[in-house]
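mind reviewing this fold:
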Amino acid sequence: MALTIDLLVSFIKWSAIIQLITELKEFTKREDVRLRIITTTYMQATEYKAIQELAKLPNTEIRINYETKHARMHAKSYLFKRKTGFSTAYIGSSNLSNPALTGGLEWNVKVTEKESFDIVKKFKVSFESYWNNESFEIFDPEDERCCKKLWNELKKDKYNGLNHRKLQTTIRPYVYQQEILDRLSAERKVYGHYHNLIQAATGVGKTIIAAFDYKRFRETHNRARLLFVAHRKEILKQSIQKFQEVLNDFNFGELYVGGYKPGDIEHLFISIQSFNSADFTEWTSRDYYDFIIVDEFHHAAAKSYQDLLNYYKPKILLGLTATPERMDGKDILKYFDGRIASTMFLGEAINRNLLCKFQYFGVTDEVDYRNFKWTRGRYDINELEKVYTADTRRCALILNSVKYYVSDINEVKGLGFCVSVAHAEYMAKYFNQHKVPSIALSAKSAEDIRNDARQDLEKGKIKFIFVVDLYNEGVDIPSINTILFLRPTESATVFLQQLGRGLRICPGKDYLTVLDFIGQANKKYNFAMKFKAMVGKSRKSLKKQLEDGFSSLPRGCYIELQKCAKEYVLENLKQTNNNKNIMIEHVRTFKEDTGEELTLENFLEKYEMSLYEFYQSTGSRSLHRLKKWAKLIQDDRDVENKIYRMMNGLFHVDSARLLDYWIRYIKGDKIPKSEEEIRMRNMLYYTFHKKYPAKSGFKDIDDGIESVLHENFVRDEVLQILEYNRKHIRVVAEKNEYSFVCPLDIHCRYNTNQIMAAFGYFTENESPEFREGVKYFKDKKTDIFLINLNKSEKEFSPSTMYEDYAINSTLFHWQSQSQDGEKRERIKRYIHHKRRGNTISLFVREFKKNGSYTAPYTFLGNADYMKHSGERPVSFVWKLHQPMPAELLPKANKSIVM
């Protein structure tokens, strides 16, 4: 007989429970059993009585997800756990309803633990992840607040007049929102930047993020004064409500817009029009507001915002926008030290239902761009315009492609990106001549024309707007369902911004159709950037994905290239995919193309490359070598490839403390002033070398480091790498809790050698062999676990394929080595670590390899024993002292999207 029943269903009906209640009562009255139920309020399909009756059963727990807009749970699964190892699961289409249990046409499959171990194991892991996720709230039938919340959520569409929001429980940020909050913290604490811009698509919840940011600020600044500025009343009304919910204070804030006049201005939500008409700057001091938020900050370069931005000196200025650029070319980044604090990735937003899915089709273009003029990193606009407007053959190809790929041209609401005003007008004229109503818009178009065009497109009076200016606010239309790329796009940022115009979620829009016209490219053009932008991170090369199909796309998205277009892209990838000659050419013409000095940082940012992509794991490339090959410098000096390979261990380093010391050391401050600095110096040595100095032929640590840095050009390049990392830290490091010297910062990344040197295991005089994933430092009474989250059969034997994963942000499931049983001494040490005064520390990495590089670990800090089960291996659940970084959590827990 089962000891635990776990039910995971979208909704529960009383018509089903009435049929099962007798058996469930019999089951739950036993003392040694447990019934756990996870459900949702999706579409208000769950019935209140069903939940109430189930919750009254003994040994029964129910958890409910109330947020169904972005996290729709459609799973229907039933697990009956048995100690015998013969657990059974039913997985399929049946919710708990009468039709599902009786006459409904349902598809379900029964699986057993004995025959389908992996499937049942995956069910258990997924269920535990949901169960421990804060999004799923405990339902207590004795708690009036819980009961009212459930009742109101299930009845809210029927009783819209009921003010149910005042019954909300504590609101928490989603993981992706917390990730943005973490980045804001890094900007302020690591870099001292207190003017911050958040760029994220509509639907991400930028206002909620701002509210949590203010809440966090208010914890250390009591009664912090807030000014929230927007340009529309609707935005302000929605925003004050969001702040009230996050702060759990429904009296918070005052509105100043339209007919609303505030009684108090300490926490004010005001329109920019009201701000200017009331002459706020005349009767408030420059430092009156501690925290100023400007919504839709892309408007802020306008004259109407200048008094606001130039007068006040808040402790925090937070800008919110979907796009940091304006059609009139005015710069808004100048208000934020030229930096964007946080940007949400495309795939992540689509997977969370914040943006709609897309279908991308690469259409073969008849234009041959190979000999087109290339200046300052792009094709010559005049040459493109001349070809595009020479005759109508290309227009015919474009229109015929639209008719083929869209389901119904009468339903199209399209946007075509053109190279110039003449090109846009030419396209609109051709489409109009062929009875597809269209219009051309540019920065020169009057505002009333832009507004009329928007309305006409939404109403279906016109089918396409052809635009030149990327950020034309007049064409920011959620209902756009077709995008045409009618010119080559040279920047991934620009490509994503253009693509994003059609990714807004809108009722009746299932997906965005994207047509990209692909011709044979100039050898300097790089197709990889746009496909990387759509695909995101993948262990497969882009070339391999093009050949075999795109397996790493956001869920529900699709990419297809016509035969010739595919050949053009593959040929381009062969030429540009870190091709030596292309890289040399990029370096040779860098200053001419960009107007900037050739530095490692400038080059990486221009070509949107990481350190891993720029350098090769073989050590065959460096900036110094590229400059020599490009004949920018006359220098016969060089070093062996192994010297550049030794630099690979620098690329991941993101501890400000460690980077600052290494930079000082390399610049000449070589005498350690403390045991901590000795350890950090040793970490630098073991970044370069595997064996201790004498074993490697060096007289001491400094000599070993100098063997790498003795040439000035190598020293300079290493400094550029470290300084680049110092400017691109994404996390706020937390101080470790050790009672002994150990220069590791929580949430920073380190490789194995660096970890061993930090703990004093690798020193100037020894570097003992270390191959296992666990290590006990007896003198420090500390166990460390080095954990690989994803294990492949190629890299791990069956006996080392341990089940290691995050249950939530603080709970971590970890398995011991396969030979370990409960009676083994180290297992006893793990279980009783607190009683014995021992420490457990966790280090995790997603994969063993990052491409051809060995991946570093993220230090999660210390953890406490919670429970264990099983034998050989023993499974543990640990509770972290510090929550896992939001950026890492989805990688550590792949069972759910949070």
Remarks:
- Residues 159-164, 797-801 have pLDDT under 50 and may be disordered.
